[in-house]
Amino acid sequence: MWLGASIVSEANNGFKWETKEFNGLDYVTLRSIKEFYYFDDIRYGSVITLEKTDVKMEVRPGSQQCRMNGVLFVLSHKVIDQNGRYFLSKTDLIKLVNPVLRPTHIHSARVFGIVVIDAGHGGKDPGSLGPYDNEKVYTLKIARLVRDILQSKGYRVVMTRDSDVFVSLANRVNIANKYKNAIFISIHFNSSDNAGASGIETFTISPVGVPHMGRGVRAGDFQTVPGNVMDSASIMLATAVHSRSLLYLSNDRSRNNFRMNDRGIKRARFDVLTGIKIPAILFEGGFLSNRVEARKVHTPAYQQALADAIARAVDVYRTSITRR
Length: 324
Ligand SMILES: [Zn+2]
What we know:
The chain is 32% helix and 24% strand. By secondary structure, the chain is α/β, with parallel strands linked by helices. A hairpin with a 4-residue loop joins strand 3 (41-43) and strand 4. Helix 3 (90-101) crosses helix 6 and helix 4 packs across helix 9. The chain is globular. The chain binds zinc ion.
């Protein structure tokens, strides 16, 4: 069976997937997905909606956009429309849809007690330059706030840095890989030449065969990297952090509404995602190159809401993988 152990090892023996190959890649019909996951309904249009109790999944033919329960994901491959039959890539089925719809089936996800918090940049590396402060300042502020909350909940927290020092990417990877029952959260803020660019986005490791966001496929993309061992767990962790952040920033305790643009959950081959063997994500908490956004990021209310969201997401993730 071509779908791999993650799906067929369960009690669905005999299920017949409708499959097809396009450009050397395996795809499966949306109708198969509807049947396999027991969706009650599928509605076709410029947006295709699959729905059942508590789950709504939306895709756009010809697009890489996918929404599951309101959270935006960027698919590894576009949804294909072939004469009114719609296809999703096998990679997106196994590496995105299945872990998000059935988190308790992620066998690689382990119970964890340690959270490695990675404040991006530091020391001689300021990261993105902002009008009020630079990225390295905000990443450390948020990291410390997250640490304090997680420690009060009983987690053990490891910081890759706790002061304004330079830590190489290789060292960040080494620190994370010392721990087995742990997860890794890297905190960053964005920058763009386009002053209007805005919003939050979350990255997890690209599955095998999928390039770094925004660039073409390279030969190395077909090799399994250490980060791929945990890629299903990582997409769950990303979903928790991304969705909580959107929620908390829209409705934080001080009644601000920071209304952040949702740029989605994306795939990348950043060094920390490639090299780390525990579930790992890289979160981008807003654009310092955007003056309006930089002002939000600079406020203590924004920083606290973001830290609360990340800490809450750790609980959400833990619950989702342990409810078996
Ligand atoms: Zn950064």
